[in-house]
Amino acid sequence: FVVAGRDKKIPVSSMPGVFQYSIDRIDEEIDEVASAGIPAILIFGIPDHKDDKATGAYDEHGVTQEAIRHIKDKYPDLIVIADVCLCEYTSTGHCGMVDDKGHILNDETLPLLTATAESMARAGADIVAPSDMMDGRVAAIREGLDAAGFELTPILAYSAKFASAYYGPFRDAAESAPKFGDRKTYQMDPANGREAMREIADDLDEGADMIIIKPAMAYLDICKEARLRFNVPLIAYNVSGEYAMIKAAAANGWIDEKRITLETLTGMKRAGADRIITYHAIEAAHWLQD
Ligand code: PBG
Ligand code: ZN
Fold first, then answer.
1. What is the number of the ligand closest to the CA of 43?
2. What pTM value is reported for the model?
């Protein structure tokens, strides 16, 4: 999590071990990532200013773009994945534009997401990862990237993203909680596994190169089913609430943190994940080398 400003390393209270860094201090974290042998990072920006058009998301000199430039310059071998969404940048905290009745404006949001993806690619992002769940965004982003000369930039789509209470701690970290309502009109119903398969098929049709299932722990059936149906790289996102639960129980001495964490990640692999996005990454990488 990269935050605007200088000399900041702000702990996220609901995610022990996770910090918001300003760009001038982010090397402290990236050095650890690199020395743990982690191949890729997913970057989220917290701008100093939010507005109704999410201008910070596609500002060529926005906090996320500058962070990507800095990281790719200093760590050229590290794969930088830019999350593409508007919720950290909108005054409403929603992932898309909102009308005066509070309804999400799906189609009006697509050009903003496309502009965001292009600016992330221009800043040097190796992969863009749309997490907004608007319909048609993968096609729009693919077309925009191609037209801007980024034909080779892959799209890692958050295809099966459920409207989950497990995202709570993330919204503290990214300062992206919705100011009203919820995300249930664009994220999926946790009870509806079949819709997840349709969303994945649609994203692949639109040009997604890789897919994310999110959250992971309570959705391992979705991972397994997607693994059996779709022959593309599959990534499980071990989300903030899953991390927070393990950290909280471990801090109380109620569980064996190392064993529980590795068992949890192993379950995701067993369910078919080729890769895992996890806040445990640095610790887990060290434990796996022990
Ligand atoms: C939204 C977004 C979310 C996460 C990443 N991007 C969820 C949300 O706020 O709805 C969740 C990540 C996590 O919980 O670790 N664009
Ligand atoms: Zn969002």
1. 1
2. 0.96
